[in-house]
Amino acid sequence: MAARIGIVGASWRAQYYLRAASVLPEHFEVAAVHVASDASAERVTRDWRVPATTSRETFLAGDYDYIVVATPADVAAELTVAAARAGHAVLTETPPAPTRELLLDYYATLQGQRVQVAEQYRFQAHHAARLAIAASGRLGAVTWARLSAAHGYHGVSLIRAFLGKGFDPVTVTGWSIPDPTVASRGRDDWHEELIEYTSARAFARLDYGAQNGLYEFDFEQYFSPTRPRHVEVYGPRGQISDDTVSYVVGARHATTGRLARTATGADGDLEGFFVDSIAWGDDIVWSNPYRGARLNDDELAVAELMGRMARYVDGGPEAYSLADGCHDQLLSLAINEAVESGAPVRVDEVPWAGAASVYDGEAHG
Fold first, then answer.
1. Residues 211, 68 share a domain
2. Picking from 71-75, 205-209, 230-234, 245-249, which range would have the lowest pLDDT averaged per residue?
3. I want to staple 14 with a disulfide (CB 3.0 to 4.6 A). Which of 9, 185, 309, 311 is the partner?
4. Number of domains in the chain
5. Residue 8's pLDDT is what?
6. CA distances from residue 251 to 237, 247, 257 in whole angstroms, order as listed
C-alpha cells in the first residue's frame, strides 16, 4: 500500500517529493499540500494534480502516514513543531536553526516526537557506493575523509558517515580563501551570460583524534561544470578518490579500478532510460531501489528517504534521527564559527549525547 503523505511547501525542494510521488504512485500518495498563497495552491493542483490548501487547520486535520516539511528555513521550525504537536509523524528538512541556542531549543521542543530529518546525501548513488566500499574492509579502518561535495550539514553528514562517528567529541578548525570564478549555470538552467565574481571556499578540519575529516566547499560547486565535487577516503590498505578505488590485496599485489555505473536505454537497449546499479568489479555495491523510475540521483535519494520514513512510522528503524540532524547542524555552525574566528571550536557536550545515532557502530573497516 502506498504511503499517504502530506507536504508543507511547494517550492523547488518540495517538488522533489512531488516528483518522486508522481513517478512512484505505487509507493507514495500525496494526499494534500499546504501552501502560503492561493496562487501556489492553484499551481500545485494544476501541475501535480493533488489537492492543495492555504489553511493550516484544514491541512493538519488530514489523515497522513507522515508529513514532509519542505519550506524556507525561517518558517520550517515552527511548521514542524505545529505538525508534530498535531500528532503527525514529520520528515523535515535539516533543522533550520541559525544559532546553537535556537538549535538546542528546537531539539528540546521536539525530543520524543516522531520527527525525522530529510538528510538524503548518503543515499545518492555514488556516495552510497563509496560508503559500501568503505564498509567492505578493502581500505582497512577508515582514518580520514575529505569531502568537497555538499555544503554545511550535508557535507558534515557524509564525513560522519565515512568515519562512522555518532556524537563523539570533536575539535573544529577552519579557514577560507577567495575563489575567483565564473557562474555559468544556476538551479534551473544555463545563464545567458557569464557572471564573474569572487566566491569564498571554506575549509575545516574535524579532529576526532585517531580519525579526521576535511570539509571543503564553495556553493558554486552545486551548479558549476568547472568546480566538480570530490570525495577522498583513506584507510591503511587503500583509498577512494572520487570513483577510483585503490587498495593492497596482499604481498606484491595491489589493485586499482573505477566504480562502474550502469544505465539502461542506450545503444539499442529497449528497457527504458534509468540508472540501474554501480559495481566494483564483480560486486554490485549499489542498486537502484526504484528500478525503472526516471529520476535523477538526488531524486532517487529523496525517494529512498521517503520509503525509509514510511517504514519508520510503521515500526521500523529511524530514517535519519532528529538527534543526527541536529548534530550535523551543530557541527556546521562550528565550522562557520571556526572559519570566521580563526580559532578552534570544541564540540563535546550535546543534549542528545545519550540518543542513538544512525552512525553508531559504523566505523568502516
1. no
2. 71-75
3. 9
4. 2
5. 98
6. 11, 12, 18
